[in-house]
């Protein structure tokens, strides 16, 4: 190589030297551009990356956007809205998708399905299941949702042998908005929703909320449900800081309708017959009240989460009174 370089003319040597120097500069510049990819990203919403996967992850999953949920959100519980996903089977006690509903992924019971809301476990601490009836019209306050089939990535809450469902609540809205939505369906089913957002006030603060009322007589006899719920969040946004305070809850009155129908004659002639609630007394109705709080701080790549839960009273009587 040295002999060939010496045999070149002086002008050719200068050109070759300049070309090598230019390639060296391009290589250094390319390395510097690659390092720029580690810069801090601006946080636009609460997203716990530790419990979500992407297309490169070896975990079978489905992402459901806010737009996809809105097309199906007519008042039914979240499991019914996910019935179109692969390997998903849903059940509804009342037969209308409102009230007590359940979801199985790959045939595994709900006790082995990990549910998180903004990365915080939501499964019941005792049964490890999830009572979706307590989240009335929560789909209206959901930004996106990811269903992971099989063992998932979440390290919080119950074991995810069947699946993991990660729910992300509404993102911060830059523009002020208001929405009124009403839906009506079979079995005297109706949904009424009012939503609002102040947008970013002084480019930093947003307050958003929702009020909902969902009611249905149900397909099964004495299987009515009356769900009242709310969702309220306050947000502070800066260049690399996002602080969110979220609370949601509500009141519900739901009748029992989970008993099976063993009488084959009635199953043939009266499929809506319900053994619960056929006889009543004067015990009255005890509604269930539930309030949950979620406080989130996100600054750069440091995330801290504090959550407290409060659940009011509930009652079930053997004569089929509401639960």
If you had to describe this structure to a student in words, what would you say it looks like?
A seven-stranded antiparallel sheet has the order 8-9-10-11-12-13-14, with no helix packed on it. It has a single domain (49-311), classed as Maltoporin, Chain A, CATH 2.40.170.20. It is globular. With 323 residues, it is an alpha+beta fold. The chain has helices spanning 2-7, 10-35, 66-72, 78-81, 264-269, and strands spanning 61-65, 88-92, 101-105, 113-117, 120-121, 142-149, 163-169, 177-185, 189-197, 205-216, 225-237, 241-254, 288-299, 302-311.
Gist?
The protein has 323 residues and is α+β, with helices and mostly antiparallel strands. 15% of the residues lie in helices and 36% in strands. It has five helices and 14 strands.
List the helices and strands and how they pair.
Elements: H1 2-7, H2 10-35, E1 61-65, H3 66-72, H4 78-81, E2 88-92, E3 101-105, E4 113-117, E5 120-121, E6 142-149, E7 163-169, E8 177-185, E9 189-197, E10 205-216, E11 225-237, E12 241-254, H5 264-269, E13 288-299, E14 302-311
Parallel strand pairs: 4-7
Antiparallel strand pairs: 1-6, 2-3, 4-5, 6-7, 8-9, 9-10, 10-11, 11-12, 12-13, 13-14
Quickly list its features.
five-stranded mixed sheet; alpha+beta; Maltoporin, Chain A; 5 helices; 36% strand; 323 residues; seven-stranded antiparallel sheet
The biggest beta sheet is recorded as:
7 strands, antiparallel
Strand/helix succession: HHEHHEEEEEEEEEEEHEE
Tally of alpha and pi helices: 5
What is the number of domains?
1
CATH class: Mainly Beta
Based on CA inertia axes, which overall geometry fits?
globular
Beta strand count: 14
